[in-house]
Each structure stands twice: as C-alpha cells, then as structure tokens.
Amino acid sequence: MALKLRKNKAETLPPLCAVGECMVLLGGAWTPNVIWYLSGGARRFGELKSDMPLISAKMLSARLKDMEEKGVVTRTVMPTSPPSVEYALTELGAELVPALKAIVSVGQRLKVRRAEAA
Amino acid sequence: MALKLRKNKAETLPPLCAVGECMVLLGGAWTPNVIWYLSGGARRFGELKSDMPLISAKMLSARLKDMEEKGVVTRTVMPTSPPSVEYALTELGAELVPALKAIVSVGQRLKVRRAEAA
DNA sequence: AAATCTAATTACTTTATGTTACTAAAGAAT
DNA sequence: ATTCTTTAGTAACATAAAGTAATTAGATTT
Fold it and tell me: Residue B41 half-sphere exposure, CB side, CA atoms within 13 Å?
C-alpha cells in the first residue's frame, strides 16, 4: 500500500464535531429568529408573529412546541381574556444567544459587503 | 384606543435582523459540517464523505453544488486518475467560520452539561 | 475481462415546510 | 340577543427539502 501523503482524517480540527449538538436546537426553519426575538425578553404568540411577518401561525406554533419540548423556551398561559400565551427563553435557550449573535454579526457584514458590491 | 403597555415592536433589539443573511449560507442540512471540515483546509469529496459517515453521496454532492453557487466553496477537478475533486472555502466561506466556532462552543457546553446531568 | 476507485446522478420515498381556511371562548359593539 | 373582534391555535392540503438504493463512466489493478 502506497504512502498516503494526505491525511485521511481531519486531525487538526477539534476532536469532536459538536456542531450537531447545537444545530439540533438552532436548526429548523425560523428557530433562530424566534430565539432572536425572545432574547429581548418574553413575548406573546401574536407579538412574535408580527416580529416575523412572513411566518405562518402554523409554523410558529409548531416551532414553539418543538422548542418547548427541547427545553429552549417556556410557555405560560396568562389568565387574560382572550387568554394570551407568553413565551420566554430558558437558561438553555439563553446559552444559544452568543452563537446567534456571531451569526448575526456575520450576516451584517455580508449585507454591507453586498451593498458595497452593488 | 387604549394605551398599550407592552411594546408591539421589538425596539430594544438591533435595528435589522440579519440572521437570515447568514442562515441562507449556513442553512441546509450538513452545510455547517461541510464548512467545519473545510475550515481545516481543502478536502476532497471522498474525504468529506468519510469525515461525515452519515451523509449520503447525493446530499454531499447537492450541498457542495449549492455552496459553490452561493460562493462559499470552490471546486477544483484534479488531473488524476480516477479524477479527484478538491473543495475549499472561499473568502466568503471563511467569514462564516467564526459564527460556526461560536456554535461549536455552545454545542460543546451542551454536551458537557448533558454528561453531567446523566 | 472483471473488479475497484472516484465522483457523481437517477428514480423513488419520506419528512419538513408552507398556504389557506377554519375553530373556540370571552368581551365589546349594535 | 346577535354579531364582531381578538388570541392562539388546528385541520386539510400542496410543495420543497432530505434521505435511500441502485446505477454510471472512465481509468487502473488483478
């Protein structure tokens, strides 16, 4: 067998790829946006809906339910009428915010870059 | 019309939500992983495939094509036989790495946390 | 000549996401 | 008393993305 000049494992990278660990919580359509808007404090269903005009009620509902199951957000029904429901980040959810901030800051640079290119 | 005690816009958050700008490039199944493995230097199709044992050839191929179209990676056919194809991050692709690092570091903390909980 | 290697592609299935319309319950308006 | 409005959804349906398995093609190797 000939010598392989090229490494066949990415040994210079951190031992385990933990991307997946985080992407499970961050993945799924609209999830980053929901976390983003909740990072400013608790918000109600309808408020989140108007923060993201393009999301459908179904998707927002599905995403919030997922996130609740994963322990990223809490859901609190307020005793108003009609009843309103408040969502907030859990401690776990809050841990995702720094990663999201990094994503946003790259996003902003990309935006600037595109504006300059035009 | 009654006074609204609750802000109906998330005004305390940064003016524009740039998450989407970045998620377009980072979104899609396996994309973060591909960027991660390319962040250590150029790699061939088969190498990426074995870096990510669970990805199918079809998905890897599709994702790399997407990423090439979006200007995140370059594709170079090497004049070997059988021909091998080398992929590398572009400058734009490299800009995504810091965000990814933030994601990985959160991922690692989540992993540790789970290990402690068990 | 048959098997192997690399980098795919094709056909098909399953899961995820998106659209539109509708519901339930309470209070306010007519 | 009946209709309208608001909040937080759900149900039925349509499309897009992702996953599986088998196949391709050219150049070695056996």
Answer: 9
CB under 8 Å to B35, separation ≥6 — which residues?
B26, B67, B72, B89, B93, B96, B97, B100
- Burial classification of residue A37, based on how many CB atoms lie within 10 Å of its CB (0-12 exposed, 13-18 middle, 19 or more buried): buried
pLDDT, tens only, A31-86: 999 999 999 999 999 999 999 999 999 999 999 999 999 999 999 999 988 899 99
Nearest to B95 by CA among A24, A16, A113: A113
Per the structure, the residues numbered 50 to 89 in protein chain A that have their CB within 7 angstroms of any atom of strand C are 54-59, 81-82
CA atoms of A22 and A39, how far apart (whole Å):
17
- Amino acid letter for position B86: E
Question: 């957000």: which residue's tokens?
Answer: A73
Strands B73-78 and A84-89: unpaired
Q: Which fold has domain B23-117?
A: Arc Repressor Mutant, subunit A (1.10.10)
DSSP single-letter state for residue B92: H
Q: Could you tell me the residue ranges of all domains in chain A?
A: 23-117
Please give, rounded to a whole number of angstroms, the shortest distance from the CA of A29 to a CA of chain B. 9
Q: Between the CA of residue B101 and those of A30, A98, B94, B107, what are the distances in Å? A: 21, 11, 11, 10
pLDDT surpasses 60 at B13: no
Under 8 Å CB pairs connecting chains A and B tally to 137
Task: List alpha helices for chain A, DSSP H.
Answer: 19-26, 31-38, 45-51, 57-69, 91-95, 97-117
